[in-house]
Amino acid sequence: MEQNKKDTKRLVEVALFILTEVFTFLSLVFNIYDVKLGALERTGNGFQLIFEEYPQFLSEGLGDWLSFYNIFIIVALLVEDYVYTVTCKTETQKRVAEIICVCVNVILTFIYMINGFVAKLVIEAQATLYTVQTAAFIPFIIVLILAGIYFYVVTEVKEIRFGAQRATKGSEVSATDELVKYKKLLDDGVITQEEYDIKKKELLGL
């Protein structure tokens, strides 16, 4: 029963890890800026800033940085997936890689959010008539929630594992105490050697 519970929670761990990977990648579809001037509207998400020329209302330095950082997110995710699927062989290695990757994904989406707010401020400073909004904070919130659930599940799995270990140690101590008690009964002549040997095999699971 405990093993089934642990296996189920492990599957949930992996699913949450994969979801943080997916939503970190999908962060690039959320608009870093959404600029409106009357009926005119200009939006820019991560993919657009990679493959299209950035608009004039973005400074050259900021535009280059946004393009570079969006490419960096894709590269970082590819490295994470390679390490997890190819480099990590054991279950322990995979779990450590998951924890690191989930933390990295939170940081990646956090910086994406900061980029959105910086772009918003820069555009508003250059053109006060523009109405500027950003959706870059949404993926950070989603990934942060997923990461929180992931670490909660990881903690639960550890408690199950340690609880099972404590129960095993407790049963070992109980068996030892019982053996000492029956040995004393044997020494006192209350039970025979044969009865003691039978009880010893029962307690040691032989």
List the helices and strands and how they pair.
Blueprint: H1 2-26, E1 31-37, E2 40-45, H2 46-51, H3 60-87, H4 91-126, E3 131-133, H5 137-187, H6 193-204
Antiparallel strand pairs: 1-2, 1-3
Helix pairs in contact: 1-4, 1-5, 3-4, 4-5, 5-6
What does this entry look like structurally?
- With 206 residues, the chain is mostly helical.
- Helix content is 77%, strand content 8%.
- It contains six helices and three strands.
- The protein has helices spanning 2-26, 46-51, 60-87, 91-126, 137-187, 193-204; strands at 31-37, 40-45, 131-133.
- The chain has a three-stranded antiparallel beta sheet with strand order 2-1-3.
- The protein starts with a helix and ends with a helix.
- Residues 167-172 have low confidence and may be disordered.
Q: Which band does the percent of strand residues land in?
A: 5-15%
Total helix count?
Answer: 6
What is the β-strand count? 3
The Cα radius of gyration reads 29 Å
H-E order: HEEHHHEHH
Pick out its properties.
206 residues; rod-shaped; mainly alpha; single chain; 3-stranded antiparallel β-sheet
Gist?
With 206 residues, the chain is mainly α.
